[in-house]
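Thread: Newbie trying to understand structure tokens

Hi all, I'm a second-year student working on a class project, and my supervisor (Dr. K.) asked me to get a predicted structure for one chain before our next meeting. I've only ever worked with sequences, so writing a 3D structure as a token string is new to me. If someone could post the tokens and maybe explain what I'm looking at, I'd be very grateful. Here's the chain:
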Amino acid sequence: MSSAAEGEEQYATTDAESILDVCLAQFGAPRLLRWHYRSQHHSLIDFSNRLFYRNSLVIFPSPYGQSTRLGIRATYLPDAIYEDQTNCARRSA
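---
Reply by user tm_fold:
Sure, no problem. This is what the structure looks like when written as tokens:
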């Protein structure tokens, strides 16, 4: 058997449902982060910390106080259209 054919066999797919299953089999159990410091405000990582890390992620407090400029907020736009990666108010005809 040629070395090219041997290399192809090494990476042959299995009955895995996704590439993530293949990686799990190849590399073992995933490792979680222990701490996070890169967000401008700690509220930006709060969702991931609660749902994926079960509040075990150490988050450094933001040097900024609560502000409407930082963080995530939702604004309902009942007649919005999605254009250029933004939900804009529908224009009048």
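A couple of things are worth pointing out once you decode it. The mean pLDDT is 76. The two ends are 69 Å apart (CA to CA). Feel free to ask follow-ups in this thread.
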